[in-house]
């Protein structure tokens, strides 16, 4: 057994710190997950925007070619 | 000019959220749930954004059916898609919160189940749009489906009042309250998320315009 765990007062402090650390872990996971979900959606929108711009440019070029 | 304003608003919203993370981290712990309770600063604003988007989708769908104006259809798809992103984030943050406090990732109680059904309905709405080719038919079917999907929204919101659920009663209209400094940061996060949502909807609306331009160009190409 660890020496801290043998002294009740110190053991309690260690446990509280562990709990706090555990809670901070979950809090950071939760916040990160929220950001990741939104970031993924923004990236999807950016990629769609590029695709749409490419498609418009391609179609306009094709129409100009046909009209010549 | 409009693009610059949009990007400025988006960057402003992200700046508020980043600044707020720092401020929220320094707030004191909640008495029962400790630090984990601070997930509320993201979880609840995300759900409020999602439910606001669902209301906007309902209004836009009714607007389309009443006027047959495709701008309403574009608005409906834009807010639904952004709302779905917020719903996904709300479900994920809720699940992580539940794992820490209840010891489980998921439970089939009325709130969580109706929220998942809401996600499925709006995902179904977007899939339906991809399945129908004709623009008028697509917009009409989608508008009717969106109105039908909205039936689930009051169930999601009031489920915790109507039934006994694992999900706790709401903080703000369930008799609880925040300390004033918590309130301030919550309101800032709420404001920033709504601002971010508005920017996303505006960008998505612009993409719908681009899609209509592509459809028109394709029709011209066919005619030539």
Low-confidence segments of chain B: none
Q: How big is the Rg of chain B?
A: 20 Å
Largest sheet of chain A: none
What's the average pLDDT of chain B? 91
Rg on CA atoms of chain A, Å: 28 Å
- Helical content of chain A (DSSP H or I, runs of 4+): over 70%
Q: How many individual β-strands of chain B?
A: 0
The span between the termini of chain A is 87 Å
- What is the multimeric organization of the chains shown? heterodimer
SSE arrangement of chain B, N to C = HHHHHHH
What does this structure look like?
The complex is a heterodimer of chains A (68) and B (224). By secondary structure, chain A is mainly alpha-helical. Chain A has one domain (3-67). Chain A contains two helices and no strands. The longest helix of chain A has 60 residues, at 8-67. Chain A is rod-shaped. Chain B is built from seven helices and no strands. Chain B has one domain (44-223). By secondary structure, chain B is mainly α. The mean pLDDT of chain B is 91. Chain A binds chain B through residues 19-20, 22-24, 26-27, 29-31, 33-34, 37-38, 41-42, 45, 48-49, 52-53, 55-56, 59-60, 62-63, 66-67, and chain B through 21, 34-36, 38-39, 42-43, 46, 82, 85-86, 88-89, 92-93, 96-97, 99-100, 196, 200, 203-204, 207, 210-211, 213-214, 217-218, 220-221, 224.
